[in-house]
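P.,

For your records, the input lines for the assembly:
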Amino acid sequence: MATASESSSKTLGPQDLLNEVRSFVQGVTYKGKVKNESLVQSALLLLKSLPAARHAVLEHLANVFGEAVSMHLMNLEFGRNSSDPGGEEDLETVLKDASGVLHTFIHSHPQAWAPIISAWSFELLGHISCKYSDRRGVPHPGSLNELLQLWMTCTPTKLLIEVTTECFAAMVGGAPDACVDALLEASVKYSPHFDWVVAHIGSCFPTTIITRVLMCGLKDFCHHGRQQGHMDSSSGQEEKIPKMTSVVGILGHLAAKHSQDIRMAFMRLFEESLKAESEAVRFTTIPFLLQLASMSPLLLQIMTTDTLKALNAPVLNKLHYQFSQWKASCPLEYESFLTLVVHLLMKSDVGAFQALQFLMYNATVSKSAETDPSLVPVVEVQRTCAILVDQLLRELEQMVFCKYKVSSSEIPFLSSLCPRASELAQMMLHAEEPRTGWLMRLVCCTVMFGGEENGAEILSLIMSQAKTSQQLSQFVAVQSLIEVSLPRVLIGLSQAVMDKLQPNRQTDKLKLMNNLLELLDWEQKSDKANNRSQLRDCFQSHWDSLCQLLLHSNIMVAIATLKVLNIVGRPKRLTSTSLLHACGMVLSLFFRILEFQDNREVSGLVNECKKSTKQLAREGLAQSILVHFLLEGVLSAENKALFGGKIDAFINKDESKFLAEENKSHGTALTLLRSHSSVFHAGVIGQGLRTPVSRLCLGKEIITRNKRLFLELLWLSSREQTEDKNQESEVTMDTTDESHSNKTSYVLRVPADLCRQIGSLIVELTTPDVLYNNRFWPEEETLKMTVERDLLVWKVLDDNPVLWDIFQMYAGNLLIMCRCSPVLRSLTATLINYFDSSRERLAQNSPKHVDCACILIRCLAKSHLLPHPLGLTSELFPIVTSFEAYLLLLTVWRYMKENPPTEDPEEVSRRICDQRHLEPVRAILHNNIEHAGNLYSRFFPPVRPKMN
Amino acid sequence: MSGNIKERLRHLEFPQSTRAALDHLVRCYADTGGGIPGLGGGTENLADEVVQDYILNLSRKRPGQRNLTAVQELQLLELLCSCLQDAPEMFCYSIFSIIFGGQVDSHKTGLLTKLVSLAISVGCGAVLGCAALWMQELGSQSQAVCDLAQKLVDDYCLLFPNVSMTFQHLPSVSPLFTCNFITAVTTIYTMLDRSRIPPVGLVEYITEWVSSDPCLCSESVRLIRIRSNFTCPLYGLVRWCVIGPLLCKDQYQISIPNGADAEVESHEKMLSLLSKLHISVLLSLQAYKSMELNQELFMYGDIYLLAKIIATHYQNSNFKCDEDSQLQVSLDRLGQTIQVAMITGSLNGQFDLRPVFEILPPNRLLHIVAKRQAVIKREAMDIS
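Structure tokens returned:
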């Protein structure tokens, strides 16, 4: 079409042209007489051949475009008008011709035509989008995408924007400033309806538009800044600089697809400002960039990520020297500048962490840290950074403390730091002053912003990572600060800590437990009026789970746990299961502690065990469990050796340990008791015969010590808890308290039920079967039948000498002794047999048997099963012959046979020794009168003449 | 009658009112019989008012009043054009000058520019003739005329090159207008630095015009009989021809690295055009002599200035004199021009041109010219 009319224009003579002008003018003036299409044709003809008609033709075309848009919108709104089916299409064909002609012009003489046509099309587009903006079919200017879609589907505007783009393409090479300026002008004039045009053109020429738009904005900013005489203020600037808004708007449109270009343009601008010759550019670029950033989050993000990277020490120093004069001359503006920076920091999200690091690094970097002195910012820069950090923290604190709940959109800085709070906390732990203080405040702000969960995590992190007390003290500092707004944070913390203590977690459990212990310890010792909630209270609810750690393979962890448990204190109510577990685990730890060599250490640790036992033993059930485990444990193959017991050569401790570890590696939880049932991996197959390993021999002192500690614990566990019941309210038991109770009741009182249990247990543990386990002592003749059994019992006691000590401890208790009667009987029987057949003249030559006999008789005597003179016979054993010893024991046997043991203390006290039984004793005394003279009167006091 | 016309016009809308106003103007001049302007007895004042109200002010942007749209403006131009075309030739300039004469203001000039542009397109000789006189009156090197010329160049050489047959045949429509136009154009495009190089299209037109009619450039001089001052395009054209090759060479060297074919082509075209223009200028000088107008077209200062520019250029370039072919070309042209000018009497032969030759780099032709001049001078002295 265009070429056809071009050829016709060649033939157009001057007169024809004049006629054409006349008819065109007539056609435009009297609308409706000439068809629109032919009028446009005529206009195009004039446009191509008559320079003077240019303005008129463009004006007419603008009207036609406007009409076409109106028609398009009308059709959109009311549906297609059936009475005028082809109207829009015809018009569109004509418009296509027109834009074709314009394209030809732009192509053939770009430098001349592009400015004219682009100005025209900008104006027209602005006019159209403004004029029809309130039409029903046109979306709100806010929804850019919808708007873009509408106008790009509308043929006239689409053609126009194509023409505009073409112009732009033609002009970009030659005079980019001019065309961007025109774009900005139009944008300012028709904002916000013009935005879609900007967005479209911007996406066609991203790099140019971005760079130029920034340059134009800067120029404008410079200009306004000079006019107003001050450089920036965060408020009210938008009205003063209309171009800024459209600059931000344009960049905002382009941000989605071309953020990389924007980034680069930003950086280039910044770098150029450093090198710039002109003072105005140098002074205004940075305020300009900040101003932009304050108006658009995206630009802020670029500022905080990319620009910061460029701000190394030399650049900072340079900036400092550039701005120092300004700073000195306008202190108020400098203040507001800093405030702006702080507000920008608070608004930044993606780059928040880098920004923070940047500030802190530059605030504290020291000359010694850097080898090159030029890489260290000058003191003023450091001070400014410090001021900024301080101000930032103050602002943050204000916001966090003042409001009950801050929404995340309010402080992007904090919301972006929240996920990295743990990183911050670690930095805090390893930082030096003044960074520690800053970081602590920041961590507090972050945590308060992030909520309890966050807080608990941070606190648990500090607790698990602190290496020194100083680091640990930050826990208390942080806690007391954040508890102001997060009152339940410690409960969360306790959960977090327990989570970290799970066996499958890779935490340094020893450090964690020690830290927890240290804190608890401090808490206990410090003033209770301290304004913070107590760790103890929180951890009490986790008592059960903490107990599991008593079995931890690292004994130090187990010990720390024990101490922690002691401070935390057991909850008042415990299920029997957890009680059972706890008792078992404490005792198992106790036996492990006994393996230590160092006496001091062991006694301290055992004291902890005792404390724990005392806490546990407050209930009868617990007592019986404890006693049961203690007695079972002391005789078990694993622990026997600790108390001087003989070990079966085949049971070898090392290997059993190995097996236990093997089992641990299979299992993940430590919920099972350390008993045989927990060893479900019963052996290692394929190692052939187990070679007997020489058993570990413990020193006598250690064995004695262990026995003593064991008996103490047993004593504690089995004694009656009468006095403690009154003190139940007071959970902690002081040492003074303990000694006091010891003094008042030196005698071991054992509850009756427990006595029976203890007695039965000892019998059960020492006798091979229950066949003869009644309390009656049979005829002497039957001794011959039970020899083997009796010997077995003897062997058990021989293997486990600690049993003798147990007997002695419980000797005063009639009930226990009565229950133990079968054991005592078997022992007596063995001794009788021994002395009967002994070849030694003196009983003393077999000291072990004499000792045993003595203990045996003393036990019987102490429990009043053996009445007065007979109970003293133990004193005779060292001096008598073997036969006499046999006789003595036989006498005891006979007495016991006639007076079988009874649980009734009344009856026991009523018993008197028959003279029959005293005869052998008297005879033996007579026989050895040279040695026993002094004893005689104790056995047989001189009969006083009855005085009254 | 005078009150009558104003009353009548007030009730008319735009096209009619202006048409009536123009009719009135024409009738005025016809009635006074083309008498000496100023003796019309108040008609002139009235005409002036009518012109202001119904022609000029219509398109002037004034607050609070409706302006003409571009289409209406086009209509106005068309009316003016037809009016002047149809008016008797003897009153034509009077009517023209009552509209566009007098105080120069930008709006008036703007409207005139558009009118002239239209006139060129539609070949309206009357308008162009009037405009030529207007130019002559203001002086073709004045700002207003240069602005007009610049707009015309934009329209016909940059925006619409080759579009109008009439522009190509402009000398046949109005030789005086063409002549003044060329003068104005050479004032705008001085060819003294790179930003002042004329567009190739313009040079092409001018070369065409000058070569087809050797008397064209003397048109304005011819009016010396009725006007005291004159401007002549020849000096400007000589400057183009002499300085052009040097400047084009520089331009060419700058654009070579970019290697755009179009630019190389236009550069070569420009050089060949200048060469053709040069010979046309020499022919024009020859024709000038035959017209026996006996005015000196060139001053000594003009020649000295050209020499100075060449010399400066020579000093700044790092070529040797005989290696630089373009320098030799411009020196040759200068020599030829001086020689022809002296012979045709457009340059006073009495000037001592030795200072000019002294500052110039060596050139054989110049050497000959200098010797020849010395001979002529000696002869003249001998005769005296």
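Two observations worth noting. Chain A touches chain B through 30 residues (CB under 8 Å). Residues 757-939 of chain A form one domain.

Regards
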